[in-house]
Design a protein that fits this description.
single chain, 172 residues, alpha+beta, 34% helix, rod-shaped
Length: 172
């Protein structure tokens, strides 16, 4: 039955299949051996100016904050021989820290700066001393004692109860 159908319709059945087969082979060969056309668009790369590069570098420079606690710093001085105090100070000088503190005292200083005395709360001995411009931190004019302040800075000098910072920044 199937053979009879194929034999009765072989001319139109195989002519269509033959044509499809020939078209498929020609398309395959054409795609295989023809070169792809290049894109007809132009890509323009604009190099940033040296000033823009420098500004980007300055804004993305990050300071490495040492995982150093206040207690670790002052403990180095407690039992240190007096002639080793300066050597210990030099080891800590320039180390960047970030500490969660509280306001102990604020005093006006020269050139529109304030001297901040910070501590870690009642009952915790030790002070952190730093100077900041009042114009940069106008909130200091009305903050009360024990207000939480995060201080970021570099250790300038330390003793067995005090750490002085330079380049101090406050997060209020």
């Amino acid at each position: 039955m199937m053979f009879e159908f194929i034999s009765a319709n072989k001319s139109w059945l195989f002519d269509g299949a033959g044509l499809a087969l020939v078209v498929g082979v020609v398309t395959f060969i054409y795609r295989k051996f023809s070169k792809p056309k290049e894109a007809s668009h132009i890509t323009v790369h604009v190099a940033p100016s040296p000033a823009a590069i420098e500004q980007t570098v300055q804004t993305t420079t990050a300071t490495r904050i040492a995982p150093l606690t206040f207690e670790q710093v002052v403990a180095e001085f407690r039992d240190a021989p007096p002639l080793q105090i300066e050597a210990i100070n030099e080891r800590f000088k320039g180390v960047s820290i970030r500490w969660e503190t509280r306001i102990f005292n604020i005093e006006k200083s020269a050139n529109d700066t304030v001297r901040l005395s910070l501590h870690f709360g009642p009952g915790t001995p030790g002070l952190i001393i730093c100077y900041v411009a009042l114009a940069d931190y106008k909130e200091l004019a009305y903050l009360k004692k024990e207000t939480p302040v995060t201080v970021i800075g570099e250790i300038e000098r330390a003793t067995d109860s005090t750490v002085s910072l330079t380049n101090a920044q406050l997060l209020l």
